[in-house]
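User: Hi! Is it possible to get a structure for several chains at once, not just one? Here's what I have:
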Amino acid sequence: MTLRLGRHEFADDETLMMAIVNRTPDSFYDRGATYAEDAAFERVEKVVADGAEIVDIGGVRAGYGPAVSAEEEIGRVASFVGRVRAAYPGLVISVDTWRSEVARAVCGEGADVLNDAWGGHDPALMDVAAEFDAAVICTHTGGLKPRTDPYRIEYDDVVRSAIDATLALAERALAAGVARESIVIDPAHDFAKNTFHSLEVTRRLGEMVATGWPVLVSLSNKDFVGETLDLPAKERLTGTLAATAVCALAGARIYRVHEVVETRQTVDMVSSIAGRRPPQRAIRGLQ
Amino acid sequence: MTPGTPVSSKVVLVPPVLAFLPDYAGLTDPVAELRAVALEAVGWLGADVTVLGDDQAQRVAAHLLASTTRTGSEPSYLVMGNGSARRTDASPGPYDERAVPFDDELGRALRDGDSEALAAVDAELARELWATTGPISEFARLSSISRAEVDYDDAPFGVQYWVVRWLCGS
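Assistant: Yes, the chains can be modeled jointly so their relative placement is included. Here is the combined structure:
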């Protein structure tokens, strides 16, 4: 099925790079480097030049930190979405938020995707997506409230839990009126998961792909990579790309990333190995 | 083909480049220009075409023929051949200093429609130089060329390619 993200359509065999753009002072990887609006806009310019099809704009750090009100979050992201929309009509704009009032504000500014990274915490968010014909990302967060780290969470089967939860959200989105071709599922690595859970979700990602819903993976420099290799945030690219390759082989469609170029090359290479993408240009031995 | 081919027969020489085949298509076509010239020449042939070349070349020829719409009842031949693949350090085969002179002489004979020279190409030297000339000589031995037109003459990957159209008599 063709994937439709707002006004943008993508064929079945297309993989998409979703570049992270934080309008936050405290996100774990960039530490506020793009908190200022102009710095965030420069980040958008860079990732577009790097080939990202999607930007995922966030105004609240996923982890613990100072409370950010809905008004403050709207102030960080809504007008910025409008600025990016005006500058890049062909770019898919996603906003990482769990709040329906924020969703309404950013959709009014031209956002195409609502990345509901806290898994349906605010049920009204789906209604906003339907009202604006936006796409939604349905994520597995194990029932945790927003901005909560996992603590002694265990699952009988973490993949089964991720599938059940994201498909339930997908059904809720459908019932709210979101278009079927505009619903994406995300197992949400590290969210409500210890490192063993995230590794298992990666290893068994094909089971999520087999549901038929397009799968987004957000792996970039996360703690499960850091713990697996015992490396700090800035030294996790190789591990991230290894996990990316496994997810690409399984058939993930959207990759939420810090490093666009490296991830694109990894995904393209794996897609070609899998026989889903021809080589860019092949002449060796064929002259 | 038998001796005594009618004067009006049409003949095209193209190289049996595997990159022409859809099985080996990348996102970007490395032989786009050669392909366009080859298809235009093949499209000039009549409806029924006899192909000269080995099994691999027959597959390439079949694809080119299937990619064109041709009319006309003139006897038509598609000759699958090329020059040396040992011309430079970037060639598929190891560099051989005899390659470029060999190609120069072969190119002259193709341009001039010199059937005698084409029929007499040194098959052993051609083999050593990774040149595919057997079908060219086979055709030249059986026909005389009355007019020759070279549409393509280049070696973009270290292999000498020509696309040539001939009108032939017996």
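Chain A has one domain: 3-273. The mean pLDDT of chain A is 96.

User: Great, thank you!
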